[in-house]
Amino acid sequence: MQPLANITPLKPAGAIEVRNVGQIFKTTSQDVVALQDVSLDVKPGRFVVLVGPSGCGKSTLLMMMAGLRQQTSGTITISGAPILEPDPNRVGVVFQEASLFPWLTAEENVEFPLALRRVSKDERRAKAQDALKLVGLEGFGKRHPHELSGGMKQRVSIARGLVQDPPVLLMDEPFAALDEQTRMTMGDELLRIWAATGKTVVFVTHSLTEAVYLADEVIVMSPRPGRIVDHLQVSLPRPRTYEMLSGDAFGRMRDRIWQHIRKSA
Amino acid sequence: MQGLGVKAARIAIVVALFAIWEILSRTGIVNPRLLPSASDTLSMLGDLLQRASVRKDLVVTATEVLTAFALAVPFGVLIGFLIAENRYFADVAKPLLFFAFSIPKSIFLPMFILVFGVGFAQKVGFGFFSTIFIVIMSTTTAVESVKVEHLTIARSYGATQMQTAFRVYLPSMLPVLLEALRISMIFNLTGVILAEMYASRDGIGHQIATWGENFQMKQLLAGVVMIAVIAITFNELVRWVETRCSHWRT
Amino acid sequence: MTATTLRRLIVIGLIVLWEMLPRMGLIPELFLPSLSSTLIAGWSDAAEYGHALAVTLYEVAISMAFACGGGILLGAVVGSLPRPRILIMPMVSSLYAVPLVILYPVFTVWLGIGSESKIAFASIYGFLPTMLATAAGIQTIDPQLLLAARSMGATLSQRLVRVIIPAAIPTVLSGLRVGGALVIVGVVVSEMLISSAGIGYLISRYRTILDSPHVFAGVLLVLAMAIAFNAGIKWIERKAAIWQTGSRAGQRAADELTAGAIQPAT
Fold first, then answer.
1. pTM
2. Where in chain A is the domain with CATH 3.40.50.300?
3. A122, B52, B96, C119: most buried, per Cβ within 10 A?
């Protein structure tokens, strides 16, 4: 077993701590500062959205939280232990479309992370069924990704991210490739799944509306160098409804984010 | 800088291959009668290029290649255009063409001898036959690579047919056409040389086959190097032009 | 009339013409023997053709193992390592422009006119496209898939076995199709040029005695072989059709192959 995970953590499961993180890309001509001195605390069970223009480093930050990329300086801890490499027991990741393996069925895709750990066939199947049921895809397990709609594929991705029951779910523009209607529905679905599981979610998006609609907290980032310029608490009650989109509170928050983004563009 | 480094490394690889060849033969690890050294082969190549008979063979082959090419390209382009522009014709012809394209052409070589006898017509005919299908297919691809939006824009600004042809079709198709030219030439050259090796009285392919039959390894290898250099030079030339106008592709 | 009907009619028409034109004397039997006389010629000497077919198939099988095995192995290595790829791939595709058939006389001097020289030639003939296709297939695997596998904690070997290999299968199959077809051509052409056995040899021998029906019977046999091979690979491709939607880039490489962009002269 993993001793680190078994030590009583200083922080409860699902807490994310980002401390003075910096990232510098070296290119042949010059060094590009992708992230500069980023610090951030995410409490367990919160839904946090990272938003900002292209190149602000929001996806880079997410990849570092997932252990898929190492920061140049600073530390990131999840559930109290530093994250140095991908650890699916602590963190599940959901990518943009196309990250399902096209040669596997939906069920096998969800089982994939378990198969990597040589979990027994029966246990795998049972866990995959639970995860698919959670995302509302009961009965679609035998289909291949090309037989599923864009929204369904993303549901499978979410099920795959959740199948090992990690306390943290990281999502990198998961709905970017979907059409507007599907996007709204998937947003509601995600909130339902989040409420049912109590995971900590960090969600990267370009869409201001999506950000405010989903989040407990919105982190606004700006590029060159990538840093946090604002941190909003979204006070809208839950469950969120479509009517809130046209309300004043919603509009004010979206405007505030837009002002930041306009300045940095 | 990096590009230069890669080029230098490639040259180093080629030089190293020639050096290995030289050493294998010089030290007698490989029987020098079976593998004459690289230096001997290259000096033989220089020698061959001085010979009137070899030059004549090269001219014969070049004439055949160019004739077959000059016949196959306009003919193939015409058919390719018809297929690309006419939906019904395309539906009828495409599967047949794909089939014709996928079957090996070389085995039909004996037929060309039965029909044309041994000579110029047979070799040109076979070269034409080896090339025509790829020209048709490439032309179809080239025409289909023209973006509909570009045509719509040209029409919406009132472009005449001539203007559309020269300002939209040609520039969009140029990169694909160059690629087609390169590949058709490879097909064509292979077809003609095979025809010469199979049954012929002249041409460089015939000469190579004869050297092989007479175990004249030095001449044979020199001939192989010669053809390889000619083919690669042509190929690189077209590729160079291709990259020069590659900004059209996107 | 639908396109398919017309196409079928054309095919039937061609077959009928093939039978009728030589029979009516519009085309000399020497140029084009009628379908029936070709089939009769092949049937009456079935034993001879059968024996030749066995020789050819033996050579094809061994060459296929060399060409495809070596091509896939080397293509996978070159395709997955960026440095060798940048260095070597352009060289390999230049080599592609060389009409490889000129190497056959070299092999006959080195290995004699038996099966060995055919196998050597056909192996090299089929090797390049298989290698190029495999390298292209490996290199165009969607990086998101690898990233996703890594996020789930897949080790290097798990990524190779569970992601890279399955994702590369469609391009490898198209490479096999082209490479395998070239192996068949390579064997038959080399038999036609210089040899003492095999279908290519039969074709050439009957050609020198101007026995057109027997030449055609041999040509038909080779055609059948090539078509059967092609159909076989296509069947496997269809079986693995789910892969086709795999990497979009891999699909593009497969399209290029079928479109002839990386198909050499046959």
1. 0.76
2. 42-71+168-265
3. C119
